[in-house]
Design a protein that fits this description.
Porin, 5% helix
């Protein structure tokens, strides 16, 4: 037993003295995890009806042509009931939106348009009202996690389209303007949410209020009228709210939906009303109206600066407002 202990102590002494000479295992290399690259920025054309959520920055400009193919089939009466027209009214309405960046927080935009209207073998082609506006970026999207981006638009409408002295046999096809200077103030809230992988969701909340000026009207006009009508119309102010969503299915394809509520105050008239084609006293005033409509669309984005959206705009219900169905094509080009 003593011999075994002596041998063990001898081996321990040898290991203690020569331990540094023993082969050592190589140090294990620490492998750092490769960070997941962030998803590519989404490509969006934008919903059909809601305004852009951000301004066009300095040094850039945007061209956005629209084409509306609209069929008006009747009206919603004062009791929210559908009243069909004896003849459908067709309208082709090309619009051109131009945006020019002035600073990082301000752009100027111009909207021009014209109409081709036809009903019952009557048709006309006319220029529409011109709009010029300024966009102010009050808060950039993503600047703070607590608020979406905020933009203010101030836009003026100039009465460049025909609105009075309309031909009684043209059945309002020669009407393409309102005759009033309209000042619109629009507050837009916009944000982009990353859902998963390369899928994003945008939300746009728009609240616009338009203040109108009195309009001198003669004959048949945008507010009614008739032979020898002569007076002043006071168009009602308009409130419009839009809630819009965009969902990216891939980098190129996306879906969009606009939900639109519009309220127009009553139009008043002072002066001589004139007479209709039947000899009755004509009306130059319009009751207040409301309308709820939707505009779904599918969009294809060729790259981050070019895209196209195709969709429809349809009415769901209303009061003293038209019933219409529109097919819309929207092309966006950013330079």
């Amino acid at each position: 037993m003593k011999n075994v202990l002596k041998i063990g102590l001898a081996i321990f002494s040898l290991l203690s003295v020569h331990g540094d000479d023993l082969p050592k295992e190589p140090p294990q290399e620490v492998v750092k995890p490769i960070p997941t690259p962030p998803p590519e920025a989404p490509w969006f054309t934008g919903p059909l009806l809601a305004p852009p959520g951000t301004v066009t920055p300095f040094g850039s400009y945007e061209i956005e042509p629209y084409i509306y193919f609209t069929t008006t089939t009747g009206i919603y009466n004062k009791n929210w009931k559908i009243v069909n027209s004896s003849h459908n009214f067709f309208s082709l309405n090309p619009e051109l939106f131009l945006y020019f960046g002035l600073t990082s927080w301000l752009d100027i935009n111009i909207i021009t348009q014209f109409f081709y209207n036809t009903v019952s073998n009557q048709n006309s082609v006319n220029f529409g009202d011109l709009q010029i506006g300024l966009d102010f970026q009050l808060l950039e999207p993503g600047f703070t996690p607590y608020f979406p981006g905020i933009k203010l638009t101030v836009r003026e409408t100039f009465p460049t389209g025909p609105y009075e002295k309309l031909h009684p046999k043209k059945l309002l096809t020669d009407l393409s303007g309102a005759g009033t200077y309209g000042s619109t103030f629009n507050l837009v809230f916009y944000d982009v949410y990353h859902l998963w992988k390369n899928h994003f969701l945008t939300t746009t909340y728009s609240a616009a209020y338009t203040v109108t000026t009195p309009v001198k009207v003669h004959g048949f006009n945008a507010y009614g009228g008739g032979f020898n009508a002569n007076g002043t119309a006071l168009p009602g102010n308009t409130f419009q709210a839009i809630i819009s969503f965009e969902l990216s299915l891939s980098q190129n394809f996306g879906l969009a939906l606009d939900n639109v509520y519009t309220h127009v105050n009553k139009t008043k008239f002072f002066g001589s009303p004139g007479t209709t084609t039947t000899g009755a006293i004509s009306s130059n005033s319009l009751p207040s109206s409301e309308q709820l409509s939707f505009a779904p669309a599918i969009e294809y984005n060729f790259n981050s600066t070019t895209g196209i959206a195709i969709g429809a705009w349809v009415t769901a219900l209303g009061r003293n407002s038209p019933i219409f169905n529109s097919a819309i094509i929207d092309l966006v080009l950013v330079f």
